[in-house]
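Deliverable D5.2: sample structural annotation.
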Amino acid sequence: MSSDQVFSRRLELGVKLAVAALFLLFPALVGFSVWRESVYQQLGQPPAQPIPFSHKHHVGDDGIDCRYCHTTVETGRFAGLPSTGICLSCHSQLYTDAGVLEPLHESERTGKPLEWRRVHNLPGFVYFDHSVHLAKGVACVECHGRVDQMPLTWRAQPLQMQWCLACHRDPVPRLRPHDQLFTPSAPRIDEADAANLARMLKLESKERRTDCSTCHR
């Protein structure tokens, strides 16, 4: 090492790598914070929507069935968001002059769908199928909570891996017959009836339900 060289080459390289790591770490932390906010930190907090839709009014007061708006919930992986046409099946006649519904009428005029913000959002590496869960007796309320009591919709459950696994390990207490799947106020059935229902529905084995490939494909 020459007399005028203060730092060794190895130390100089280490400093450069540390600086580069800091530059890479900052955007990574920002990205993680945004992702965590979108996935985990909305528990109990309703996100802003183009229209402040009230499940309490539509489900709790008017008794509208989940399937009227979420048309693919029994047949597809995704429940589906209501189209402008579905909303207008009522609101072409009701509250037509309400200012809060102007985005709906704007959507009708322009043909541009309303940009609803997802409340129950899962990471891209998680596979979830609504139709399978309903076919196996898991009611909407188990994941979505008492939407019939929500003036604005918020996330009722964390939807984190351990929460999902708790149900997959022991789903029986959470099962309901088909005629109660879409009734948020319906109480859970008793243990004996739930056990009988589980046998009738022929649930997958615990090993299969908790296998990594079941939710991560």
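Annotation notes: The mean pLDDT is 90. Residues 83 and 89 are 10 Å apart (CA to CA).
The annotation will be released with the project's public dataset once the embargo ends.
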